[in-house]
Amino acid sequence: QERPGVRLAYLNAVVGNVFGNHTVQTATDSLNNQLNCMLVEGVLPEHPRPVHHLLSAKRRLGIDPDQWITQYAICSECWKDYTPIQLRELPSPSCTVLDCSGLLYDERVDAKGKIARTARKTMPHVSLIGSLRRMFMRPGFATSIRDSRHDQPRRNDDEDFVMIDMYDGTLWHELETNTIREIGELGAIRDRPPNNSPTAMKITEHRYGLHLTLNIVWMGVLNNRPHSTRPIYCAIKDLPRDQRYHQVNVICAAIIPGPKEPNAQQINHCLEPSIRELIEVKNGTFRYECAHILMNTCCEASKCISTTTMNLQISPQTIRFSTATCQHRTSVLNGTAGHSHDFHHCVFCDIDIVKVNNPEGYDNSWTPKDDYQMLRQSFYSKDATQACRDAILKEFGVRWSILNLISGWLQSQKSVLDFMHAIFLGIISHLFMRVLFGGYMLSGTGGINSPKRRFEEIINAV
Prior knowledge:
Layout: H1 4-18, H2 24-41, H3 54-61, E1 69-74, E2 81-82, H4 84-89, E3 105-109, E4 115-119, E5 122-126, H5 128-136, H6 141-144, E6 176-177, E7 180-183, E8 189-192, E9 201-202, E10 209-216, E11 219-220, E12 228-236, E13 250-256, H7 264-282, E14 288-293, H8 297-302, E15 306-310, E16 313-315, H9 327-334, H10 371-382, H11 386-396, H12 419-437, H13 451-461
Parallel strand pairs: 10-16
Antiparallel strand pairs: 1-2, 1-5, 3-4, 6-9, 7-8, 10-12, 11-12, 12-13, 14-15
Helix pairs in contact: 1-2, 1-3, 10-11
């Protein structure tokens, strides 16, 4: 309803802020200057009354990202999450988790004399389902999703076959969807199709079966200050490889607050909102009415608009854990023991820490981990006392992880080897520091023209 000139002023301020690196105050001043020019010319409308701040201009344009972000209040101790509605309805500021002494909010009296609650700690979260809806409303996005229905399975059985991408792997075509995870009376775990169907559907049998990877990266956000944080983001591996990590194609589900690294209980609570939605989508209970989308190549070429019901099936079974420091933090996520554990430091086999530095530790004679035994002990650990949890971790090398609620998730088979830290911070670091430099194969004699200095300049220039 606003005049085109006013909307153009809004848009110029937003573009300057987003693409011109203008601060909020600078963009707001630019907006007010344009509105003042219209006022002097006598063309500034009185109704609807123009807004004079950048954030309000984004709302008027309908591009305010804050409308898609839910600010969860989290406990100051265990980081249990509460929605804004739950925060208002709580009878007291004490956390509802058993044996937790944390507090959730402080109360104050606002300008109107009403009691307002302010969360002590918050975690911003973006809906996975809502993000997928917005993505599939973009023209051309649906057509860019890879169709794996006609792929030839088990191509890796051919020794001469060369893999190009993740979809060439065997596991890509074996992942199942629309399954239910059940726990037996004696703790046995199984995943079965609903309605007692004989077999579960493969995710590649769906046109829009999505393979998601869950990434968590630990990083410092302030210079010279010990404050770190973690973004939780999802990437769609069915997109072309050069488009998977474009900003518009990545779902930043949450930002884990700092300032210190969370423990296992805290990170489980931070993942809880995303896992709830992931289970809903994976079980096939989420159906999205997709309107005004160019659904296939034919429609896109003819510029037609169609309305189609899309049944999105998402597999979280290819969940990938990416950390910015060490393998220990990966073990906190998937509920396994750390790399320094005496008997269960490897999530893939039963090698112990004594053999890891010997040749016999790499002769492929070790027994793979039993995923379902690990799941059984993990569920035992969920409601056990702290002493029992420590005993299970020591004996079986597992602890509770909220990822175990997802049907099809297996702690060993569906975890990815931390290649970056194992190779670059392990083997490559050993080669440079111990073999090349420590063995004096690259001498430092000669100052800036020495072999060592020239080698360092070459590496730093890459």
